[in-house]
Amino acid sequence: MCPEETITQKFTVTFVSANATSMEEFSGNPGYQLGKPVRATNLTSLVPVTTLKLWKPVGENLCSSANLTPLLFGFNSISGCIMEVSLADNCTQLREEVAARLNSLVQVSHVGKRGNARRNISDDWVEVLRLNASSSTNTSEGSLRGICPDLPAHLNIQIITADVGAIEGIPQEEILGVQLSFSTTTWQVGCALACPQNATSLPISAAVQFIKVPAHPPVPKTRFQINYTEYDCRRNDVCWPELFYPM
């Protein structure tokens, strides 16, 4: 080969994505990332992993046409919509309809502890605790047309979280517990004389609150620590340490 001759080589690289559409999207690894959907599933059935949801009303703000949007980790929020109510329904029917509408936001049994919770690992999930709406229904009041007491018109979603460590200096947050409860109200038809088409409207709402707690219970104070203020020279006229040990 002559010194003046050169050889040119050409390389081609092709990236092939296999089953890209079937890849599972996590909300953190391992802890949750702020603003990512809260993972949820129903461990009593074979449903895939989904998320907790809130309403995203459109148009006239009706529940029947409202879209659903994922509940995002770390963001306290509230959403609501308007139910169309038939005056032919009795209070028992109305309570059941409202409760069903609110429960449709949380059609799961468990929530992911971590952002990368996997469906087949039971320890990755925490059970959703549901508190039934308290009822003190007065039969005579409930029988009055247009008045319904103890109506579960508001859903409270409380999510307990904690920092459980850090990876490369980034705190890792986990969900320790989830509790659902209802706030009840006495609802009365708002039509002055007669309601159009024998129907009226009822606003309902749902709110989520994230509550951050220590990952481990704090160490109880000893009796000496509780009573230490008695020996604090800055808080007492008599400085006991200096009295015992003069400077």
Automatic annotation (TrEMBL):
GO biological process assignments: cilium assembly; protein localization to ciliary transition zone; smoothened signaling pathway
Cross-referenced InterPro entries: TCTN1-3, TCTN1-3_dom
Pfam families: TCTN_DUF1619
Tectonic-1-3 domain residues: 28-213
Protein name: Tectonic-1-3 domain-containing protein
Source organism, top-level taxon: Eukaryota
Coiled coil: none
Record's subunit section: Part of the tectonic-like complex (also named B9 complex).
PANTHER family: TECTONIC FAMILY MEMBER, TECTONIC-2
One term under GO cellular component: MKS complex
Signal sequence, start to end: none
